[in-house]
Amino acid sequence: YTEAWDADKKSIHVMPDTPDILLAKANAANVSHKHYQKAWDEAKAKSYDLRADAIPIKQAKASRDIASEYKYKETHEKQKGHYIGCPSAKEDPKLVQAARAMALQNDRLYKKAYNDSKTQIHIPVDALSVQAAKECQTLVSDVDYRQYLHQWTCLPDQNDVIHARQAYDLQSDAVYKSDLEWLRGIGWLPNDSPEIKRVKNAQDLLSDNVYRTPIDSVKYTSVVDSPDVV
């Protein structure tokens, strides 16, 4: 049944001059990287003549020489020795003065004598200041400050223990919320709600006392003219 349809699905013929096909070909040509660089590739394939004395080449060389750091500092490097006016920097009074000022302002040299003298201080063990420091350290020591008391034990029937337990029970969160825990999960419905009425009616239908009326609860009188009575 589906053989002819399956064979027809495999043979699809699209006309090459439909608007969609033409548009797709135009879009492919627009986004093609090869077409985009076609003119550049053709220009590269052709030979070119660029002389060394051309104006753009000379301009590029001049710009490179100007921008070069070596060329920029060449004159300065040659004139370095002519600025001081002394055979060496150590004989220049201004440079010596600047070096002296830098040495005075140097923090390491400023504290060198103090750091050397710190290791040469000797304080006797029984000095008054040392004893005062030790006593102060003992006062502020956390180990000596916390002196744990003896673990006292009390009898369970003492009045103060009983009173403490009662106070703990009054303040206990478990005892305080015991009624709430007991009432948790218990629902409440009004007496006239449809659910209560439905249950009551179901109970009346299933009640054995209503279904089977006891014989002693029925009022009756004997027949006065029965054969037994006569």
UniProtKB/TrEMBL annotation:
The protein's matches in Pfam families, at most eight in alphabetical order, are given as: Nebulin
Repeat keyword on record = yes
Question: Quick one: a GO cellular component term?
Answer: Z disc
- Check the record and name the SMART domains matching this protein: NEBU (SM00227)
What PROSITE patterns does the annotation carry? NEBULIN
UniProt GO BP: cardiac muscle thin filament assembly
Q: Is Nucleus among this UniProt entry's keywords? A: no
Report a single Gene Ontology molecular function. actin filament binding
* Matching InterPro entries: NEBU/NEBL, Nebulin-like, Nebulin_repeat
Which keywords has UniProt assigned to this entry? Actin-binding, Repeat
- PANTHER family tied to this protein: NEBULIN
- Protein name (Swiss-Prot/TrEMBL): NEBU protein
Organism of derivation? Pomatorhinus ruficollis (streak-breasted scimitar babbler)
